[in-house]
Amino acid sequence: MGTTSGAELGGLADDRPLLGRTSTAERVADILRSRIAEGYFQPGERLSEETIGKALAVSRNTLREAFRLLTHERLLVHELNRGVFVRVLAVEDVEDIYRTRRLIECAVVRGLDGPPFPVDGLEKAVSRGERAAREGIWKGVSTANIHFHRELVALAGSARTDELMRGVLAELRLVFHVVDDPRGLHEPYLVRNRQLLESLRSGDREGTERMLAKYLDDSRERLVEVYAGAVADDTAP
Amino acid sequence: MGTTSGAELGGLADDRPLLGRTSTAERVADILRSRIAEGYFQPGERLSEETIGKALAVSRNTLREAFRLLTHERLLVHELNRGVFVRVLAVEDVEDIYRTRRLIECAVVRGLDGPPFPVDGLEKAVSRGERAAREGIWKGVSTANIHFHRELVALAGSARTDELMRGVLAELRLVFHVVDDPRGLHEPYLVRNRQLLESLRSGDREGTERMLAKYLDDSRERLVEVYAGAVADDTAP
DNA sequence: GCATATTTGTCCGTATGTATA
DNA sequence: CTATACATACGGACAAATATG
Predict the structure, then answer these.
(1) pLDDT digits over B155-210, tens only?
(2) Strand, coil or helix: what is B73?
(3) Contact between B99 and A72 using a beta-carbon 8 Å cutoff
(4) Closest approach of A195 to chain B, Cα-based (Å)
(5) Each residue's pLDDT tens digit, A3-32
(6) Which of A7, A155, B29, B181 could form a disulfide with B66 if both were Cys (CB 3.0 to 4.6 A apart)?
(7) Last residue of some domain: B86, B102, B117?
(8) Which residues 188-207 in chain A have a CB closer than 7 A to strand C?
(9) Which residues from 94-153 of B have any strand C atom under 7 Å from their CB?
(10) Which nucleotide has the least CA–C1' distance to B78?
């Protein structure tokens, strides 16, 4: 009865039951979170307790704790007596995500102290995105774009707001995995990210806020359009 | 060794293991959340797996799932191999909570569609607070005040923003339980809540936003002052 | 500093309820 | 309707860490 090796899923750090600083459930959650973020587990896919438990060599109780964590992060949905599934966002969820982003990101820009503003993190994210684009790694462009907006929100200096944005942007990744035309989705925002950065550098809060609002409205509109099509294809092929 | 009856904690709905629509762990979490919100479990108190498990007649595994849920809501903190404790907020947490509130609540007002604005929920919360004050139930004033701000944020129409605010205001309750001068803390805001409501009724977004910003700054300042004293008393008596 | 008791961390086996073929 | 597969929840067990004397 050789337990399936966890190699395919990345596996846990070691055999020892407890020596890492974090609990087993959290380490399992970290692994699963990565696999979801990178699309190894597709939205809609069911995550079997037994299969994954064997693959990672953890008990069902431990695995269930990990599932709970990810469910609370809205990456998994839990259906009573049916199990957990990778979340499939509704179009309304996408709209709510953008409603939240617009509210918060614009408020952050509006409430900035300064100028000057500490834009180092933003600069780094922008250039990473540009480099990824030159190399044709569109998934990297997507990741850099997400980092850009996280760095933007980080300017507000609030841990709770940061965490909200982290979660919201992680959800957004689920959408990207379904539509999966990374280039068409993300390339247009490379220049717009740099524009936002330069606008902040110039110290123009109001202009940046307006620019950002339009940016998010455009992004939402386009994404909803594409996503609605993709979801429709999926439910009625 | 009769298992301690769950009467003291409120107990579960019934004996049956599964007939309600929610899982046992969630129902347990609901009970514990209420007890924390009302101050039955004080900040800093340790929640024993065995004691509470017996009192609510659930297994340790189930109880641990409930703990996970509440830990993720930041109402409990989990210390490895030591157990879970009711969260004790640092002064910096209070400041971060207010930073978040100011960012979001003001952004909500700023972004309102209208006028007119649908202020029915706000009206209800305000009058409930006024009634509680007339009856001298200061804990009720606190609850109504929290409802007022939740209703305010609800005007943005975003589920994710609502949930963030729900969590943030639940954390804030932990602070109130430590300082516990409910009247001094909440009474001043009865009139200010009504002023905000009337300002919204008049359709003056900008004026309301300014008023709200000052309101939150005042509230933060006073609460931090009182809370810093209470925490200092607690650590060095 | 040491030995002991308590509590948590993890896993397993099993009985029961629920959904689906 | 029955059968199967799976999640739910329980109780017990032992290891590991912490708290107590």
Answers:
(1) 999 999 999 999 999 999 999 998 878 899 999 999 999 999 999 999 999 999 99
(2) coil
(3) no
(4) 23
(5) 333 445 555 544 433 333 456 777 778 888
(6) B29
(7) B86
(8) none
(9) none
(10) C8
